[in-house]
Amino acid sequence: MNRENDSFQNMLASLDRAASLLGLQENDYVTLKHPESELKVAVPVKMDDGRIEVFSGYRILHSSLRGPGKGGLRYHPEVNLSEVKALAAWMTIKCAVVDIPFGGAKGAVKVDPRQLSQGELERLTRRYTAMIAPLIGPEKDIPAPDVGTNATVMGWFLDTYSLVKGQLSPGIVTGKPVELGGSLGRQEATGRGIMLITRETLKRQGRPLAGTRVAIQGMGAVGGTSAKLLAQAGCRIVAVSDVSCGLYKEDGLDIPAVLAYLGQEPGRLLSGYEEAGAGRIDNEQLLALDVDILIPAALENQLTAKTAPHVQARIVIEAANGPTTSAGDEILEERGVTVVPDILVNAGGVVVSYFEWVQNIQAMAWDLAKVNAGLEKTMVSAFDAVWEDARANNLPLRMSAYKIALGRLVAVQKLRGVFP
Ligand code: NAD
Prior knowledge:
The chain is α/β, with parallel strands linked by helices and 420 residues long. The protein contains 14 helices and 13 strands. It has helices at 7-21, 26-29, 81-97, 118-132, 151-165, 186-204, 221-232, 255-263, 283-287, 326-334, 342-345, 348-362, 368-393, 397-416, and strands at 37-46, 52-63, 69-70, 73-76, 104-110, 141-142, 213-217, 236-241, 246-248, 279-281, 293-296, 315-317, 338-340. It has a 7-stranded mixed β-sheet with strand order 10-9-8-7-11-12-13, with helices on both faces. It has a 4-stranded mixed β-sheet with strand order 1-2-5-4. The chain has a two-stranded parallel sheet with strand order 3-6. Helix 1 crosses helix 14 (397-416), helix 6 runs parallel beside helix 13 and helix 12 packs across helix 13 (368-393). The longest helix has 26 residues, at 368-393. The structure holds nicotinamide-adenine-dinucleotide. Residues 145-148, 190, 217-223, 241-243, 283, 297-299, 319-321, 346, 349 line the site of nicotinamide-adenine-dinucleotide (NAD).
């Protein structure tokens, strides 16, 4: 991994910059530079052909200062420790930006889930859950879906944890099926938050969503839902991509048709989709398109020293975690591109995860209108605070978001003190 792509180092660079803006001393926030705990497990799985394959798994609790750790579970073949540490730390910052009482955590297994049968995936999930069970809990650390995992995986997770603990524990995961205590609106929450933040950003520039030209990298849970909701709100989605290829259509793609095609069976990719008037592009071309808004919604380290100089969009809405490296960020800042940061943009998922956890504790279920109203209120108020700070202090939005989060974390750290 080159240094530019070291996500944890990129996170530390932003943290240091925010700390100096707040006039903090190293002692005030040094604990946030080190995850509280890092667990690495070797997960044996009986494969369908009788072989036993061993996969590397991780669970990292970055901070429990403001509440139990919260963070997704990623299944990806390229995942590494620095990435999981960064993802866990970003969760700490994100929960503080939207002011919900959670800390930050993240889990991962180094595996390509598309290469496993359903049975293998279930056995992997159950064994991994059992191995990290001593460290997690509804009041300690609560996983959720991320890249390569979904509600089905969360259901297996809940069942295994409940069996290990000897009691049904719905609060152990969020993003689970509604029948198992999942929240209405959770599946769409990250994408809905992205639509709301895009709307608010345009509103500050006196422009509506309708007619805005958008390119989206990644058509999974986050990118797909964002595309759907933005198209419903009148945006013209001129380009989308996934790991297989990108599609471009000047008049706007037929997003319901794209999503219907991808949703027909698990593992479907855009390379098999045809639409009249749509041409193929690659991911680098997508990032450089002449559009109003670019939404990276796939993985980290996409807008870099190499790709950032070619970005033509005037607004970048960071739907993925860590899509912009520190070097890419500097270039976009110099070029006057408005970058709305991941720790604000994609917080909708964790906000509704918090609502799900609250519903589980109370053994109650909210209706969809209540969930969506709570999400909108939380996202818009966090956006307003970040936007106002950025304008008042002439800062990039990312720095204002970090400043607000770090201020809240350090205040709690001071009150709690350091034991003993
Ligand atoms: P997902 O697995 O559902 O989808 C990922 C998408 O990215 C897929 O379409 C995949 O084909 C595509 N992709 C992978 N590599 C690519 C590449 N090199 N170029 C272009 N596309 C590529 O994952 P997701 O849940 O949608 O997560 C996407 C991002 O959003 C991640 O950064 C994740 O951490 C973040 N996120 C997810 C949630 C959530 O609720 N799922 C919440 C907050 C943030």
